[in-house]
């Protein structure tokens, strides 16, 4: 059961780091310490999977694997897998994710780590690695083979693979496994390292009383191990080509709608298997986080099916999803539904009914509140079973948003607050923290009060997203104490549980 609390949104790729992208090493531990000093209860992140097209965490090569670009070279050194000389003399920009240079650099480090491990270094990890491979075999073997084959084929997408490989013909698979054995084991090893580093970080966060809000994208990438290994669970043909793809119709974010391009589930086939794939996916995610934001919750009621040949999302139609049958199956196997429903956009009564029947909190974003006094995103209209956000990764930063408002809208915000707005980011945080919502969350960009240059994602824009990174020097002097004071003032520091006397 959720208690009154608050947190900050910062994806690990946005953490400070000398390696061109944030990672889950020493600076992540410092970030957890910072959250604790700010009296926060939650660290919200984006999906942790390996990123595909456009570096998007919502276009992943696997719904089960971890993003190895997040691995910390410093922690690999501590494990005896790399010497510090492996990265000495390298320099990367610290204000954005330099993926063009960072991805091959990280891949090279992991190749060296694998070679050291294969040569007998870090022998204490051998048994742990073998146990991990056995425990995660259900998804790990297919993922490692998929990535090895994809590399062998010069990173061409799944639908352009040789037909016999797409169809997973046994003889062809056996030949690929024999030829690519070393590369397959490398990918397995990298996933072991990710599990090792993330598990340790999560345990440290728990010790500091920081829980993690994760994220499950509703759909998976067409270029993924998930589709290749389970084509019958998706609306694709025998060569993994989709007949329809996912997105949303024209809305607040885009006049043409959003054409995501992901294949859509065959929910009848999922139901016939007892939703086993989804249950396994949720179980895997709960190994990494404490609470899960369900991306595009309305897609479980109805999804926007776009003809695969279309280039925009205008010509789609709504098609029924699984409804609560999926969630009943998850609850029957896992015992609870630790979800936040991302119910933004145009939400119909059937979506509200599904969320309410499941007892899931929805989301309220302050940037959507410029409307009538009855607008559900105004704090005066919140219900307690809500997660309040100043903005999300899909919004502009609060400062950037504020600068786009005309004088009338800025005046309207000031009248709601009760005075002219001098610090829009902090005023929006104050509104969220002071609301009745169970949890209040702000992107760290609002603590920093950065403008549009700090925006993480522009929906519908294919390139240039997911790049922003924080620097420790960006945190204004006194901001840690200021967040802590705000959190205490609005009673968002959960009380310590009282121990009963024996």
From TrEMBL:
Upper lineage: Bacteria, Pseudomonadati, Planctomycetota, Planctomycetia, Gemmatales
SUPFAM superfamilies: (Trans)glycosidases
Enzyme Commission code: 2.4.1.25
Alphabetized UniProt keyword annotations: Carbohydrate metabolism, Glycosyltransferase, Transferase
GO molecular function, one term: 4-alpha-glucanotransferase activity
Gene it is expressed from: malQ
Protein name: 4-alpha-glucanotransferase
Catalytic activity: Transfers a segment of a (1->4)-alpha-D-glucan to a new position in an acceptor, which may be glucose or a (1->4)-alpha-D-glucan
Disulfide bond in keyword set: no
Family: Belongs to the disproportionating enzyme family.
Single GO BP term: carbohydrate metabolic process
InterPro entries, alphabetized: GH, Glyco_hydro_77
